[in-house]
């Protein structure tokens, strides 16, 4: 009669065999130098538990195989060994893809029209092809003309001699030096915030700061005219994004009411909620009603993210931005970022806020953790810029800011009071902005068959992007840019540099049309500000006034 074998019998037998094997193996292993240590570990680990011993042996075998196997092993099946001649033939036939998209011949004129400056980008420049003529620069964002300041140049040269031109690594990995720490303290003190974090690149700052605080399931209500950097940052954050009409506080409140009724009452856990806007909008040059934004923030328990790249160094008696312009404490703004490449004439960007916000970025913001720090000399340049803005200022307005505000108002008044331009262009910028954005009047756009917008909801560009068309060329867009370039060219002939802002049209969500950008800076004189208006006004009238569709088409054919 066959005897029944139970699981317990199998385990006991395996235990006995394993123990006998271990004793035999241990006898031989003790003869190897250091083997007694291994045997002692196995005996103490075994403790009458064969399953544990088998598991540890399996892990040991796996570890040995893992660390001794080649990382780039090739499966022999289907593998074809080529001769050297065949490899050479393949290399000769290989054509690498271009690093940049080739310029479309229909848009080649745009590349050819970019002027080449022969020296620093300051209040007066010399362009190639204009007989070495000194020209008024009404295209720069260097509003305080700090690029021509000899004191800053001298101090920056000293830093370059001592530290070189690179930071060598991210802030947390030997990138930050004492100069960077000083600048963070200088910026925090200047703006009256608890903390400041520096970033090496300005465009990536929003795309690093916002995703470090937002995740899937959080809520953002953003102005529909926010710049491209913010648009991409919100996409990266994967939060729920709702766009309100540009600077329309009623629409903002309507959306926040709807979100509270539909989501926030039953929300568990509580999501993070942000209002995202700009100080001076890069696309149009106006600013939001900050008092109303803060009122809605406190009413609906949101936080505020404010991009002040064009309002720092421009708005406020001391250039401290939109909150100073409205007389609001900086503490009311949760997160503020700004580029240092505009009014401060440096590079990179910074983010200011409370200490907790700053500390969180140092461990969770991708651009801070993995991108190289600012070059030390550019950090020093920004510290010096802050010093010069505060110079000779006690309780009143900074002399630099006073001059800039005077020129900004003068430029705005001269264009808005120009009756000859009323039906030719529209100005959406604020009087306090140092940049005027001049768009072709809607009546003329209609006469020339130009759309109200090339991007945004329902636009031709949006349709092309959604359908995945590789050709993003829009003839009407190219034609309107050519028309504006005719204005720019006439201004250049008269010694004034203005520009058409460049956009990545296929990437833009905001509704945009080509326009002219005219700016002022403190390196000019009152007479030169008047000259800017005179030259630009005449050029616009010569090119756009009384233009018919037939004349426009004739110009395009000549192009």
TrEMBL record:
Cofactor(s) required for function per UniProt: pyridoxal 5'-phosphate
Pfam families (alphabetical): Aminotran_1_2
Gene Ontology terms, MF aspect: pyridoxal phosphate binding; serine C-palmitoyltransferase activity
EC number: 2.3.1.50
Gene3D superfamilies, per the entry: Type I PLP-dependent aspartate aminotransferase-like (Major domain)
Pathway involvement of the protein, from the record: Lipid metabolism; sphingolipid metabolism; Sphingolipid metabolism
Residue ranges of domain Aminotransferase class I/classII large in the record: 143-415
Source species, domain of life: Eukaryota
GO cellular component term, pick one: endoplasmic reticulum
One GO BP: sphingosine biosynthetic process
Annotated keywords: Acyltransferase, Lipid metabolism, Pyridoxal phosphate, Sphingolipid metabolism, Transferase
Keyword Transferase assigned: yes
Keyword Glycoprotein: no
Similarity field: Belongs to the class-II pyridoxal-phosphate-dependent aminotransferase family.
Name under which the protein is recorded: serine C-palmitoyltransferase
Species of provenance: Cyberlindnera jadinii (strain ATCC 18201 / CBS 1600 / BCRC 20928 / JCM 3617 / NBRC 0987 / NRRL Y-1542) (Torula yeast)
Lineage: Eukaryota, Fungi, Dikarya, Ascomycota, Saccharomycotina
